[in-house]
Amino acid sequence: MSDTVIKLENLGKKYLIRHQQSERYTALRDVLTNKFRSFGKRLITLQPHSFNLRPSREEFWALRELSFEVKQGDRLGIIGRNGAGKTTLLKLLSRITEPTTGRISIKGRVASLLEVGTGFHPELTGRENIYLNGAILGMTKNEIRRKFDEIVEFAEIEKFLDTPVKRYSSGMYVRLAFAVAAHLEPEILLVDEVLAVGDAAFQKKCLGKMEDVSKEGRTILFVSHNMPAITRLCSKAIYLRQGRIVKNGDSYQVVSDYLLSGIDTKAERVWPDPLMRPGDDIVRLCAVRVRNNKGCVSETIDIRHPVGIETQFEVLRPGHILVPNYHFFNDEGVYLFVAIDQDPEWWRKTRPAGHFVSIARIPGNFFAEGILTVGVAISTFDPLAVHFYERDAVSFHIIDTIDGDSARGDYGGVLPGVIRPVLNWTTLFNPGDVFLQ
Amino acid sequence: MKNSDQTEIIIEAGRTEAQYWKDLYRYRELFYFLSWRDILVRYKQTVIGIAWAVIRPFLTMFVFTIVFGKLAKLPSEGAPYPILVFSAVLPWQFFANALSETSNSLIGNANLISKIYFPRLIIPASSVITSFVDFLISSVILVALMVWYQFVPGWRVMTLPFFVAISFAASIGCGLWLAALNVKYRDFRYIIPFIVQFGLFISPVGFSSSIVPAKWRLLYSLNPMVGVIDGFRWAILGEGFLLYWPGFILCLSLVVIILVTGLRYFRKTEKTLADVI
Asked: Which of A225, A260, A295 is a domain's end point?
């Protein structure tokens, strides 16, 4: 099970970017005019290369010094911002382009869901397109013939089998395309952003298919911007930035790194310099921390575990009623709720000078997965005064698992909502007349 | 299929050459399906469908017979003038169709090229096959003409496959050049209809190449289609037609050169095709 199926060594891909032309192809006319222009300039200036002040071509490394291994049965997520080289990597793996440096060795048949519907010809009928698309995806004629009925059934297009696909509804089109791709049996499956296209049902089908494939011990490489999907489906992940690997490891850690890299706030924020601390002459903020169920500062929190938000502050002038409060935002900027300190020990009591630590514990199975940002404030309510409000004090990343005991149960797809509580369900079996009225 | 593909694939800069020809064999079914698709699609949603493959050469032959045979009264080399014309229209149409099909084939299949791997040679090659099917269909007219004029070809007609092979090589050679050039320089999109239009008149389609003055004939043979057409006529028309051997040899070597260099240039372009297209 643990043999290496994909091995990359020092892989690099270089592109030449043209600055002058916006077209991707050259016209002979332009080549000739440029030749003449440079020739003319050379005659005038008598300096052969002085016209080359601004180079018209520039090297650009889409991928650089990439080395990693993928073992059989691995589900590897590839994440990174746009232009980080994710798609180039898949293109190299599927042999669409050649690498500039390095080598890749692959054992087994590679197929990719990036080609859903590629090569479909609008004029051909559904039947003809199944054969054509199958062949394009690398199936043999016998294989297609063997799976033909299955594909038709999966796509639910029996009636329209002999209609040109240009007359199909877009839904039928996508179903047929996916059905062909789904019946391919590759040893290595490359998936690029399929979850971005299609409706919810289609996305669910894709995810379901990927889970099936991985259960069969095949290898999956999954490129996506859908971080929850990555953490759910992939055991490992690679984080690419500007063509290089930033982090390679367990998927939830890599995803946390990636998500938090865009946010300055971390799970811990400390203001060591007393003069820089937020606050006024009554109270000042010293530190804010996110602690997991083991009491460690952690950016990654399992959805099932409680999380503690801890604020350390110093009261400079005694005699005030001070109420710490937390403000929670999700990664879409939605204001989730406000939590106000209710500790009975200090409720409506003035505080002496000195250091305090206030901890709020949020139960497990409460937030939905994603990044949460916490704003920290200390207020006095009568008369109303805000001593400080640090908006993006700390952030942490909630991760949902597929172990089945979180609120999502065994559902692997996208789960909407901002909270995700585990409810108490009961079932009555054949309850009798009382309940049926 | 569990054990069918356990071979290890190495992807490396410049490495593909060694695997290329192996891949070409491995992807033979795709080649078959692409040709099949092109043939199917060619006459979809047309009223008379495949009859177009017959009507176009027939009309060309008809017009040329009237203009060159009846009006200009050019020599017919001892055969009925329609047969003289049609034995040239056949290879010419094949060549012209193949040229326009292949030159646009890569761009027409850009979505395939930028999304999946297969030896790209398959695409222009399957376009030539499509034109070849048209060629086979329209040769029915030649048979019909022979029956109509009660013209019996001699033993030389047995050599026809050889000349068909030459026209095949010429088509694919020129097609590869133009397909590859067209991806890089889209100017060729405008040049090709021009070549096809003019080629019809500079090649001996409507007339016999024997009317070209002897001192110009070698020069005239620099057009490879001259050799191909003369070959066809030599095989079909029989004793009446004399083959100009120096010109034919020249044409043959030209075809070989075009084919080899075309293949090489195509292979060179192919590596960066997905990045350029």
From this structure: A260
Chain B CB contacts of A132 under 8 Å are 33-34, 36-37
Same domain, A253 and A387: no
Query: What is the pLDDT averaged over residues A145-166?
Result: 87
Q: Nearest Cβ partner of B41 from A101, A123, A135?
A: A123
pLDDT(B4) > 50: no
Mean of the pLDDT values across residues B6-12?
A: 70
Give the distance from residue A25's alpha carbon to the nearest chain B alpha carbon, in angstroms. Answer: 5
Q: What does the DSSP 8-state code read for residue A297?
A: B
Q: What's the mean per-residue pLDDT of chain B?
A: 85
Query: What is the distance in angstroms between the CA of the first residue and the CA of the last residue of chain B?
Result: 33
**Res. B9 pLDDT band, cuts 50 70 90:** confident
Choose among A25, A91, A137: nearest Cβ to B184: A25
Q: B122, exposed or middle or buried, with CB in 10 Å at 0-12, 13-18, 19+?
A: buried
User: Nearest CA to A33 among A18, A21, A19, A17?
Assistant: A21
Q: What is the rounded distance in angstroms from the CA atom of residue A356 to the CA atom of residue A361? A: 16
Helix (H, G, I), strand (E, B) or coil at A282: coil
Is A142 domain-assigned? yes
| Chain B contacts in chain A segment 109-138 (CB below 8 A) | 109, 112, 114-115, 118-119, 121, 123-124, 128, 131-132, 135-137
A417 phi/psi in degrees, rounded to 5: 110, 155
Same domain, A284 and A389: yes
Q: How far apart are alpha carbons B120 and B24 in whole angstroms? A: 9
| Same domain, yes or no: A207 and A356 | no
What is the count of structural domains for chain A?
3
Is A61 in the B-facing interface, judged by CB distances under 8 Å? no
Q: Are residues A225 and A297 in the same domain?
A: no
Q: Is the pLDDT of residue B1 over 80?
A: no
Using one digit for the tens of pLDDT, what is the confidence trace for B215-231? 888 888 888 899 899 89
Within-domain flag for A406: no
- B116/A121 touch (CB, cutoff 8 Å), yes or no: no
Average pLDDT of span A249-269: 78
3-class secondary structure, B56 = helix
Whether A197 and A311 map to the same domain: the answer is no
CA A429 to chain centre: 41
Verify whether the Cβ–Cβ distance A135 to B33 is below 8 Å. yes
Chain B residues closer than 8 Å to A141 by CB: 29
For residue A10, the chain B residue with the least C-alpha distance is B12
Residues 6+ apart with CB under 8 A from A270: A286, A287
Q: Tell me which residue in B32, B33, B271 faces A98 most closely, judged by beta carbons.
A: B271
Containing structural domain, residue A18: 13-60
The mean pLDDT value for A61-67 works out to 87
Backbone φ and ψ of A107, nearest 5°? -110, 120
Q: Is B10 on the interface with A (CB under 8 A)?
A: yes
For residues A228 and A348, state if they share a domain: no
Q: Tell me how far the alpha carbon of residue B8 is from its chain's centroid.
A: 38
Chains A, B: CB pairs < 8 Å: 116
ipTM score: 0.78
**pLDDT tens per residue across span B57-116:** 889 889 988 988 888 888 877 788 888 899 899 999 999 999 999 988 888 888 888 878
